[in-house]
Design a protein that fits this description.
By secondary structure, the protein is an alpha/beta fold. It has two domains: 142 residues, Rossmann fold; 138 residues, Rossmann fold. It is 41% helix and 22% strand. The chain is built from ten helices and ten strands. Helix 3 runs parallel beside helix 5. The protein is globular. The two termini are 13 Å apart.
């Protein structure tokens, strides 16, 4: 990269955020980068008094702003210990975490936004849903949802790439190749091949069968091309193509193979795939037991 990678890190002091910070060392990130650590003093809009028949009042603790700044400084220190050459700044703001992270990403335009898999507040999750899922859906940059595990820093990394031949999947391969991984790191390519849905009948059978045959052939070609590129970059590679629901296959393979992280594109092939299987990326991000990086092409 000619310019330093820009990384936005959302931190809230939770156990998941702590694991997220340690996970950074296993994400193949460069030795030099520009990083912003953002902490958010949570502000929730109270529901109307008619909501469930309960009158709810949520107010800011007097020392919340100072606590937020302290958390940001602690995270900055830990990241600086792991990446001494990074230029790290902090921002402590007031609002709703996911919205503030997305706003910052839209303004600063990082290459990667990193969050933990869960936030702190039960009330916040109840009213606004998962911060990580909201960031995943609304950010316009690549997003890493970190579930850090304890392992030796220099040990080979196991990276699963969900490959469907799309522009997003090609960007995921590019992102993996561009990173800095330990020697003998491994990549496992996974694709769920298509079959004719059981509900298909009548005149729809032939067109869908032809489309699926073309898609499967195209995906096999993409798999071969990705394998050649990854092997050329020094990775030990393997691949699996199975007839299965994509979210299920990706998560099962990641757990069976012991993946440290899943890389995948933000979207699948198009409206037909989304109609048949829904959002694969959000489903995997919610269910996987390892870190998940959703890559959006630049």
């Amino acid at each position: 990269m000619k310019e330093r990678m820009k990384i936005l890190i959302g931190y809230d002091g939770s156990d998941c955020s702590e694991r997220m910070l340690w996970d950074l060392k296993h994400a193949g990130l460069p030795n030099q980068a520009e990083a912003v650590v953002m902490t958010v003093a949570e502000h929730w809009l109270a529901p109307p008094t008619s909501f469930g028949g309960v009158d709810v009042h949520l107010t800011e603790a007097p020392d919340e702003g100072q606590n937020t700044r302290t958390m940001a400084a602690q995270a900055q220190s830990l990241i600086a210990y792991q990446f001494p050459e990074w230029n790290i700044t902090t921002e402590a703001v007031w609002g709703t975490p996911a919205s503030k992270l997305v706003e910052k990403a839209d303004d600063w335009k990082p290459d990667l936004l990193v969050v933990g898999s869960h936030g702190r507040g039960v009330v916040g999750r109840f009213f606004l849903g998962s911060v990580s899922q909201k960031v995943l859906h609304e950010a316009h940059c690549s997003v890493r949802i970190a579930r850090g595990v304890v392992k030796e820093t220099a040990s080979p990394t196991r990276i699963l790439i969900a490959l469907d031949g799309s522009k997003g999947a090609r960007a995921a391969v590019d992102a993996v190749i561009a990173r800095q991984w330990p020697a003998e790191s491994q990549v496992h390519l996974v694709n769920a091949t298509w079959t004719v849905p059981p509900i298909t009948a009548g005149r729809m059978v032939a067109p869908i069968t032809d489309w699926i045959a073309q898609e499967n052939a195209r995906i096999k070609t993409a798999m071969e091309a990705a394998t050649a590129r990854l092997q050329g970059a020094g990775f030990i590679t393997s691949a699996v193509l199975e007839e299965d629901e994509p979210k299920d296959l990706i998560c099962k393979e990641a757990e069976r193979w012991g993946a440290d992280c899943i890389f995948m594109g933000a979207r699948g092939m198009g409206p037909v795939e989304r109609l048949m299987i829904g959002s694969v990326s959000s489903g995997v991000a919610a269910r996987a037991h390892c870190s998940v990086e959703i890559v959006r092409p630049a």
